[in-house]
Amino acid sequence: MRKLYFKIWLVLIIAIMANSFSIRCQDSIDNKIRIMDLKLELLDSKLELLDSKMKTWETKPKELDLRLSDLDLDFRELESKLLTLNFNPDDINYRFSVLDSVLQKQQNNIAKPKNTDIATISMDTMRPESSKAVISLNPVRIFEGTFQLSYEFVVNSRNSVDFSGLATYATDEGISRVYLRNQELSYYNSSTSTYDPYTSKNIYGFGSIVQWKNYLLAPVNPKHRAPIGLYAAPSLMYRRLWISGFETKLINDVIENVEITQKLNVFAGGVIIGMQVSFVKSITLDIYAGGVMRLSMYDSELGFTKYKKWDNIDFSGVLPAGGVKIGILK
User: Fold this and answer.
1) Distance CA 276, CA 160 (A)
2) CA distance 258 to 274
3) What is the DSSP letter of 310?
4) Tens-digit pLDDT profile for residues 174-217
5) Where does 142-267 have alpha helices with state H?
6) Which of these, 299, 315, 307, 313, lies nearest to 195 by C-alpha position?
7) Domain ranges within the chain, ordered by starting residue
8) CATH code for 132-329?
9) Is the CB of residue 145 less than 8 Å from the CB of residue 203?
10) Helix, strand, or coil here: 100?
11) Closest CA to 292 of 271, 308, 323
């Protein structure tokens, strides 16, 4: 009985093991089949890709043939055009050789400057060309009631001549009122042989100034040639003036204002030193100072005036001179 049970169990175990082995074998076979299918699909895709490349390679020779045919056509057109041209390389080379020989002859004919010729070139030819004239205005004299306009023209690189015109019209109500109030004027009364003071109301007249300017740095510095740079100049001036005012007098026990008009001549001569510089290539600034000898004389008197204040318009004596002019280069 026990042997029978043992055989039954043995048969069951063998059957179970055979079944499991068959299942495993079946699974491995299925996996291999799937892998084989994937490989076949990959191979198909590669074949399709190879087929497309083969088609592309088949079309390339056709395109190359088309391009070569077009290029051959272009070469033929170019060759036909070159054949139509009248071009001879030998003739062109001959012409170039002739031109080269002519240029060589011209270079040999040009004389080279000698060292002695270079040494004789003057400094004036190496200097930059400067302006020929300056038109300027003296703004300081405006406060004296005088308009001064100057014209300086260049004689050479070191010298120039400056002409100035003076026009005077000063009144006690204008911009020159301070200047007139500081004047201590008097006239000679022949009836009493004395000088009687009077108050000036206006001064008018004309005049001129002449200066010969010598520019001191012109020989050593081309930038300081006339009319720019440091200069020294003798100066001469003449003015003709009419001075009018009122004197208070007691006439027949009545105080009256008597009008007085005097004619004055002013002469002056001296030396000034100045510096004229330029800005923005056209504007000039001239600053000068020096000394002059001034002599004033009235028509109604004999001789030059005496004992006058130095800032009086009719002063006679030595005076300092100075001023500023603003001008334009021409």
Assistant:
1) 12
2) 45
3) T
4) 899 999 988 988 888 777 778 888 888 899 999 999 999 999 99
5) 177-181
6) 307
7) 24-85, 132-329
8) 2.40.160
9) yes
10) helix
11) 271
